[in-house]
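Recap from last week: sequence in, structure out.
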Amino acid sequence: MKIKFTKQVIGDIENIYQYILQKSDRGIATKTIHTIYDAINNLSLYAELGTKQKTNNTRRLVIPRTPFVVIYKIDKKVGQLRQNKDRDSFGKKKDKLIYILTIFHTSRKL
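Predicted structure tokens:
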């Protein structure tokens, strides 16, 4: 599966990095961002890893060893064919898209 980041998420990641940098050192800020990216990259293999939410067909992934949560959505309609919904004309499985919608600190109420 392919992962797409919304513009908001790019800003979220930058804000998280800057916030941690104010409270700690560059190494911890960088390690935290890497941990977030690693967890998001796992979604390409295990798209349903996060908990299904009641609204908007979104899922919630708690980032291990951090106070951050990722909200994402799986677009299962991408690349469907009429005869065979999951395969392209060469018989290869079609990629679905995972949209990363936002990343936030667990102390923040949404």
